[in-house]
Write a structure and sequence with these properties.
3 domains; alpha/beta; Rossmann fold; 47% helix; globular; four-stranded parallel β-sheet; Four Helix Bundle (Hemerythrin (Met), subunit A); 504 residues
Length: 504
């Protein structure tokens, strides 16, 4: 099947046909590096990480670029606040962002350019816009000895302005997200180059000492690494206006070509049904969330919703995702146990004589990847694909619970087919990446930490209980069992001794 994507520009699903057959150029807006990354950054990064992986899975040669905005008013303000240079702030938070992406299991893009390393390309880009008279220079007097200039893009010169966001240029007013300057020809015009103020970082340019505006950076970087027209441009919905709208205007003016063939935008993250914002004080940092939840829990939480849909972060929703993740890991552990020690598909399946739950499970397992691709080909519908996965997990567990089916000669091969399908899906989604035993041990350690227990304490209490039972002090033995049970630890007395496990 042909992949179909929802194009924010046309507001329709379209067949995905890249400019060059078999190749995809993809650009995703990266962070402005002035602070630690939050869950909104995680949502976008995971969404486009999965798009990147799936396109490669489908056989495309993908060139993926995600930038760093490492010079910006916010960076300068943070540097002034911390008493360090803007470069130090940018490098600090680039390092932190990279650490967070690695912790989330996000694959590295092919290119990660910095705005400050692309100044020459940015200046050349602006010169083209000035030559075409879509941009104009405003002289600013900074001192008696020095006169530097701002450069602005005139949005009314571009006939297609507003085509991505659907905004009417005549209805727009200068506001919180539109820079106001009395020297601009129109209050809605945006800065391509900013004259540096005293003490600010700067680069030499034909317009004096200054630095690039935010929007021009992405146009210059995408053109440098991907060419005049790119297949996919991604980012959060909050970037549609003005950032992506401005990118279209300046890029299509400069090149005379379509800038982006398919615009993809991920939905917002709400916190307990409220919009995430600094004013509400509900910004959740990636690294704080990962102190409590395994990164695969966060990925599964995101992927259980369509990338264009909003998601609501709450402790309950993350706990539900954690339980779902563990359910699959437990199923994978059961599959390994029921398949035996050999790897691969063991033996041939007698398909003609399959019936009942054995037949249903085999068909479901065999069709998993087809169902997965159908879902993903429909605008990367991870939510539907995850649904198919959990349908199979439920069926496999019923199959393994069936005493007759579990003893069938076909069982090892059927389970191998199921495991193979789950693992291929997991590789695209970036989940189930470790062995079931390893994950379950991680969960056990996490559980014990939250319960304020340790392995040695539990083993010590079990030894004390064993001794109490030997001395027929059953009251004390029961007290220990009840105390552990209250902390989520269940005991089971077997012929080989007492074993313990955490309660789900």
């Amino acid at each position: 099947m042909t992949i179909r994507v929802y194009n924010s520009l046309t507001r329709n699903k379209e067949d995905f046909r890249p400019l060059s057959e078999g190749e995809v150029n993809m650009y995703v807006c990266g962070p402005t590096v002035y602070d630690l990354s939050h869950i909104g950054h995680a949502r976008s990064a995971v969404a486009f990480d999965v798009v990147y992986r799936y396109l490669k899975y489908k056989g495309y040669r993908v060139k993926y670029v995600r930038n760093y905005t490492d010079i910006d008013d916010k960076i300068i303000n943070r540097a002034n606040k911390d008493g360090v240079t803007s470069k130090e702030i940018a490098e600090r938070y680039i390092k932190a962002f990279d650490e967070d992406m690695a912790a989330l299991g996000v694959d590295l893009p092919d290119f990660r350019p910095k705005a400050t390393k692309t100044i020459k390309d940015i200046v050349e880009f602006i010169e083209i816009l000035i030559d075409k008279r879509y941009a104009y220079v405003v002289e600013k007097e900074l001192s008696e000895e020095e006169r530097n200039c701002d450069v602005y893009y005139s949005i009314r010169m571009f006939d297609g302005y507003g085509k991505l966001s659907g905004k009417d240029i005549d209805e727009l007013e200068a506001g919180a997200r539109v820079e106001v300057d009395e020297k601009k020809e129109d209050p809605l015009d945006f800065a391509l180059w900013k004259a540096s103020k005293a003490g600010e970082p700067y680069w030499e340019s034909p317009w004096g000492k200054g630095r690039p505006g935010w929007h021009i950076e992405c146009s210059a970087m995408s053109r440098k690494f991907l060419g005049d027209t790119i297949d996919i441009h991604g980012g959060g919905r909050d970037l549609i206006f003005p950032h992506h709208e401005n990118e279209i205007a300046q890029s299509e003016t400069a090149t005379g070509k379509q800038f982006v063939r398919y615009w993809l935008h991920n939905g917002f993250v709400n916190i307990e049904e409220e919009k995430m914002s600094k004013s509400l004080g509900n910004i959740l940092l990636i690294r704080d969330i990962l102190k409590k939840f395994h990164y695969e829990v966060l990925r599964l939480f995101f992927l259980s919703s369509h990338y264009r849909s909003p998601v609501d972060y709450s402790e309950r929703n993350l706990t539900d995702a954690e339980a779902a993740l563990e359910r699959v890991y437990l199923t994978l552990a059961r599959i390994e146990k029921n398949r035996g020690q050999e790897s691969g598909v063991m033996g041939q399946i007698d398909e003609k004589n399959l019936k009942g739950i054995e037949k249903d499970t085999y068909e479901k397992a065999s069709n998993l990847l087809n169902s997965f691709e159908e879902a993903m080909d429909d605008d990367f519908n991870t939510a539907m694909a995850i649904g198919h996965l959990f349908d199979l997990v439920r069926m496999i567990n019923r199959f393994m619970d069936d005493k007759i089916a579990a003893r069938s000669a076909n069982t090892p091969a059927i389970l191998a087919v199921a495991k193979n399908g789950i693992e291929k899906m997991a590789e695209i989604f970036g989940i189930f990446s470790i062995s079931p035993d390893e994950y379950l041990n991680v969960r056990k350690e996490q559980f014990l930490k939250e319960a304020g227990l340790s392995y040695s304490e539990i083993e010590g209490l079990i030894s004390e209980r064993d001794e109490a039972r030997e001395q027929k002090d059953f009251k004390r033995a029961d007290e220990i069992r009840i105390a552990l049970d209250a902390k989520g630890i269940s005991l089971e007395d077997t012929s080989k001794g007492t074993i313990w496990k955490t309660k789900n």
